[in-house]
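Side project, low priority. Logging it here so it doesn't get lost.
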Amino acid sequence: MKDYQILLFYKYVHISNPQEVRDWLFALCQKFGLKGRLIVASEGLNITLEGKTEDTESFIKEMEKDPSASSAGSLQEGSGQAPRFLNIHMKRSEGTGNAFPRLSVKVRPEIVSLHLGVCDVDPNVTTGTHLKPEELHEWIAQKKDFYIVDMRNAYEHAVGQFAGSICPPMENFRDLPKLMKMIDHLKDKTVLTVCTGGVRCEKASGYLITQGFKDVYQLDGGIVSYMEKYPNEDFEGKLYVFDGRVAMGFYTDDPKHKIIGKCASCEAPSENIVDCREFGCNGQFILCDSCENKQTEKRGHTHCVKNCKKVHKSPIGKLWSKIKSIF
C-alpha cells in the first residue's frame, strides 16, 4: 500500500446547507489529518485532498454516510433515499505527503468559476454524454471523425495535451464564452471536451449544447483517468495538477513518453514548471534547468521571461516597477 494518497473528486448535487456541510467536512479532514482544497457550493462539491492512504479511505467512508444531510431534512439513511455523496468517481493517485501546505475548506457560489450568470448550466439537467477512457481509446484507434476540445487553461496545455486537440487560449475557465468563435465551426461535428478530472467539462459540455452544438461528449473521469489506463498514449507530455506536484506523468522514463513543453527562455524541451517570484506576479511557466540556474544566479529568483502582466497591471505592481526603475 502507498504511504500517501491524493483524492480528486467532485459531484454536482444540490446542497441546501453548504455552510453546515463545509463545517462537517472541515472537522472530518481534521479528524483524519488531511490537507488540501475543498469547495462547497449549493450546486455541489469539488475536492482535492492528501493524507495517509488509510486515512483518505476512512474519510471516503465517513463522507459517504453524509450525516449532515439530516439538517437538510432529507436523504436519511434508511429513508429510502441515498445520501448525497454516494457514487462519486474517486480519482486516486500516489501522494508525497506534502502536496498541500494546509487545509482550505470554503463555501463558494460555484465549485468551478465559470460566471455564466443567467446562462448558467445545471449538469444534472444539461451536460455532454460521458465517454469512458476505453471508448476514447477505441475512437482514436479507429480514427473516428471527432474533435477534442481542451477546456483547461493555456499554461496547462503548455506541458501536456492530447495530440491534435484544439486548445483555446484561456487564461482562466471563465474565458470560455469569449472564445466560442474559435470552435463555432464544430457545431455540427462530434466534439469531446477534456479537462483534468472532469469537473470543468460537466459545465463546459453543457454550455456547448446550449450554444447549439449537436453531438457533445465529455471524457469521463478526466485526463487523469485516461493517463492511468493508457500512459504515454495519445496524451502527450505531463498533466498539470493543482498541488505541490505541479505536473504528473506515468512512466516518464519510458521511451514513449514525449516532452512537448518548451523552455520560455531558450525553447529547449522541458517539463520543469517554475513560479515567477517577481513582486505582484504569481505566474507559472516552463523553464529548463539551465535557464532556471542562470536566472537564479543573476537575480536570486526565477521570473517571467517577458514582462509580468500582473505586475504591470496592478496598482502595487506599477508602484513596484517605478521603484525598481529608480534604483
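Brief comment: The first helix runs from residue 18 to 31.
Revisit when time allows.
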